Each structure stands twice: as C-alpha cells, then as structure tokens.
Amino acid sequence: MAATLRRAMDACSPRPDGIWITLLLLLFAAVWLPHLAHSSLVPPTDNIEQLTWVRSLEWGYYKHPPLPTWVLWIPVQVMGLSEVATYVLGATFALAAMGLLWRLLAALRGPVHATVAVLAALCITYYNGRLYYYNHEVVLIPFAVASAGLTWKAFRTRQARWWLALGACLGLGGLAKYHIAVMALAVLAFWGWQRGWRDTHHRRGLLLAMVTALALVSPHLYWLWQHDLGPIRYAMESSLGLELQGGRRWTGSAHWLLDQLLNRALPAWFFLLLALWTCNRGAQRIPAHRHTAPAIDTAMSRRLLLCFGITPLVFTCALGLFVGADLQLHWGAPFLLLAIPAAMELGRCKRAWSAVPLKSALKAFGLVQLLLLLWGQMISANGEVRWQRHHWRNFDAQALADAVAPEARAELGGPIRLVAGPPAEAGALALRLQEKPLVLLHGRLDISPWVDRKLVDGCGVLVLSKAPKPPGYRAVGDNFPGLYWRVIAPVSSSVRCTGESNATR
User: Fold this and answer.
1) E-only strand ranges, 131-287
2) Phi and psi of 418, rounded to 5°?
3) Radius of gyration of the chain (CA)
4) Does residue 441 sit in helix, strand or coil?
5) Which residues contact 18 (CB under 8 A, 6 or more apart)?
6) Predicted local distance difference test score (pLDDT) of residue 344
7) 63-106, pLDDT tens digit by residue?
8) CB-based contacts of 136: which residues, under 8 Å, 6+ apart?
9) Counting CB atoms within 10 angstroms of each CB, which of 287, 292, 303, 413 has the fewest?
10) SS3 label, residue 486
11) How far apart are CA 420 and CA 408, in angstroms?
C-alpha cells in the first residue's frame, strides 16, 4: 500500500479531477475489502440478514423497507448466494457517496478543498473498517449526500426539475430506511434559513419534492398498512419507543454524540489536523497553481453545508433527550461524512483547506490508514493478537455446519432445506451448508415470507436455539457455548426436499 501511495503522490495532479478521485476510491477499496474479508470468519450480521431476505422480493420486511434487498437480488442471480456480493455492494454504495460528496464540494469550494474533505471522510471508521457492511444505513449514504447536492441545485437554478429530482432522492431513500427523514429535516432547515417561503419557485418546488417523495414511497406505505406497521412497531419496541427516563436520556445522548465525534470520526479529525499543520508549515511557499473556490454565493453554500452536517447530529440527540429513545450507535453511519465539510466551515481556518499541498495530504492520509489497518489486523479473526475474541467476526459458521449437518441430514432423511432460529446464527449456518437452505427467522412464518408451511411439513427443519438448556435440544459443542440444536422431522414426504439447492424467487 505504501508503494502504491508513493506512486500516486508522484503522479499527483495539482488540480484533482473526477478520474483522479475515482482511481483513489478504487485503490481504497482494493486495499480494504480483501483485508476485511480475510479478517472475519463470517459475514457481518447485517449482510447475513440481507442474504436471508433476498430469497423473496417484497414491498417490505419485518424490520425495514425493501430497497437494499431489491438491489442485492440482481448480483445474487449472477454471483449466487454469496457474501462476496454483499461486500462489493456495500463498498459501492459507500464509495459512491464519497464521489458525490467530492463533486458537491468541488463545485462549492474547489477540487483541493473537496479532496481534503473526502480523504478525511474516508478516515471515519464507518467507511473503512465497515466498508464490507451491506445494510440499510449503507444504502442510505449516497441518498443523504445526493439530497444536499440536489437541494443546492434547486436553490441555485430555481428550476422545478431539481426539486423533482430531490423528491425522487428522498423517496428512494425512504425505501432504503426511514432515517431519510433526517435529510428531509435538513432540507427544511436550509429552506427556512434561506427564507424559501418568500419565493414562489421555492414554495412550489418544496411541495413538488414532498409529493414526489410520497408517491415513490406510497406502495411501501400500503404494505405497512397491510402488515400492521411491522417495521415501525419493531423500531418502537427496540429503540424509539423505550422512553428512557431521567439521567439515562442525558447519558445516552451524550454517549451517542461523543461516540460519533470522538470515536468514529476521531481519525478524520487527526487527519485534518495533520493536513492543516502541513499547510501552515508551508505557508511561505504556497505554489503558484493554488486554486480558489468557484464564484458562488459563499454565504448560502456555507448554510447548506452546516444544515446538512449538523442537523442529523442535533436531531438524533434530541430523540434521546426529549423522546427517551435508546440511540443506536450505527444510526450515524449515513450522515457522519457530512459533518466533515460542516466542520471545515468553522473557525478561522476555513479558507486554508484549498491551500493544503495534496502530496502532504496524501502522506497524512496514508499514515492514518496504515494505523487503521494495523488496528484492524490486531482485532482480526485471523490475526496474531486477535483482540475482541467474542466479536461476531470470530463466529466459525463452517465449524458449526461441520458439527451439526451430517447428523441432521441423517435424521431428516435427506438434504437440509430449512434452518430455523436466531437470524444471525441460523443465517450464517445456512450460508455454509451446501444446500443453501432457507432461513425461518425465529421459527416464525409471519416474518419469513420466503417459507411456506408445506415446505416445513414436507422437508423438516434444523432448529438452533440460544435459550438456556431447552428441552429436546443438544449442545452444539464446547466451541459454541450456549448454542443448541435439534431436528424437526418432516410430517410428510415431498419431492421438493430432494435435488438441487434452494433458489431465490
């Protein structure tokens, strides 16, 4: 990696363009994805969840809207039911967001400023150590960045087509995750700060965006109504509706905010300090090719960056303080990269970022990335130190399959077509079995639309359980403490239980 970065620095253009940043992002993926794939014995639980759900295309699932599962369906048809497809998709969405962020900032502050911001964003641990994650937060990232860019276009041009595009962006984001509402609030905050109510074009444009977004998400809303608001009920029962009281609201909100800014984003602040130090150090020898920002409304663009960078943090903390929600740390993943350009607008150094020498910035970026890779190796499932031994990445699903599959097949009288139990363990086991069986989530048909009762009765089920000493179950073994299994034999024979592995429908 160091040699590659050195060649990149030697060839570095004084004015980076779209091709340059694309190559940088591809290099970033080429380094991190193999490292992350090698660091885990099993895919992240969110990836397993999507590989379970993709067996049936629905307008919604018991926890979330459908867009990430729909997007995964095509790669699965090409590559098969493999975690590799999720790794590539996760990196694609995250790095596409970085490309969109660069384009927006290059238009607002110039290409050097934009490059420094993207390099800093790539240091946030959501986007390097979790680059192989594929979940609803990851799919939402480019929609969050695009909403900022389209809002800027809509205000600058006062054209209805950009408001229409913004509505489409928010609507598709709503099909990815309901957290797109935070970006809608950022749009409203900027619209209000710009006094959009005074302009007929902006009043009509905002209404057009709202109607477009609602039209795109309406089929899912109908599905919600038909399914008793399942994902919303799940959110209320797991986090939003817990109604924490007293000091727990303050400590929960403070913990969430500190985790975002001083844990996830800490390497980014370290990089920016290094970049600023190199800029001040070379202040007396700034090259003649220094570029200034494009001729735009600086005050309006600053408001845009502040609204989209700060609103998600403020709103999420408000959920904890005033609603008593149990704030989940991963909720910041779709939005934290937008805090970088917002932070760069603060203080007296906001004009210095365009003067940062790119070679020095790349050296600082390489240093931070090497430190992050070193830490990743220390906690790797295949590393020498192997810290965080109890992390999910160390769950050996192949050993689990080897332990239970032969006896389960013998008791079933044929291949394993169904695995039931906790979603993570059951899904991981299903991926490691040669039959690629369907997963019956928590043993419930109502939240597993890809499984029908006839398949259960005709093929039987391999059941996993984490309940303490459930009757009729056997312990998997010493390597899987607290995990038990049993087989439910088929009640009738079925030709569907022989032959090739299950396919998505």
Assistant:
1) none
2) -140, 135
3) 25
4) strand
5) 99, 102, 103
6) 95
7) 999 999 999 999 999 988 999 999 999 999 999 999 999 999 99
8) 46, 64, 65, 68, 176, 177
9) 287
10) strand
11) 13
Rounded to 5, what percent of the chain is helix, strand, coil?
A: 65, 5, 30
Distance (Å, whole) CA 190 – CA 300? 9
Contact present, 2 and 99 (Cβ < 8 Å):
no
CA distance 485 to 492: 22
Beta carbons within 8 Å of 440's beta carbon, 6+ residues apart: 418, 419, 420, 421, 426, 448, 451, 456, 461
Percent of the chain at pLDDT exceeding 70:
90
The amino acid at 449: P
376 contacts 129 by C-beta, under 8 angstroms: yes
Query: Which residue shows structure tokens 């660091």?
Result: 39
The answer to whether the beta carbons of residues 89 and 50 sit under 8 Å apart is no
How far from chain centre, in Å, is Cα 18?
Answer: 24
Alpha-carbon gap, residue 340 to 107, rounded angstroms: 16
Residue tagged 């759900």 (tokens): 53
User: CA-CA distance, 473 to 82, in Å (whole number)?
Assistant: 29
- DSSP class of residue 347 equals S
Q: Does position 503 have pLDDT exceeding 80, yes or no? A: no
Close Cβ partners of 489 (under 8 Å, ≥ 6 residues apart) = 411, 412, 413, 460
Read off the pLDDT of residues 383-437 as tens digits, 9 standing for 90 and up: 666 666 778 999 999 999 999 999 999 999 999 999 999 999 999 999 999 999 9
Dihedral angle of Cα 478, 480, 483, 486, to the nearest 10 degrees:
-70
Distances (CA, A) of 118 to 89, 110, 124, 173, 260: 20, 12, 10, 22, 17
Task: Characterize the bridge pairing of strands 418-421 and 438-441.
Answer: parallel
Specify the amino acid at residue 31: V
Non-local (6+) Cβ contacts of 199 within 8 A are 158
* H or E stretch covering 275: helix 266-281
pTM of the model: 0.92
Q: Which residues contact 30 (CB under 8 A, 6 or more apart)?
A: none
Q: Which amino acid is at 471?
A: P
440: helix, coil or strand? strand
The residue ranges of DSSP E strands in 141-264, in sequence order, are none
Enter the DSSP assignment of 135: S
By C-alpha distance, which of 440, 485, 448 is closest to 466?
A: 485
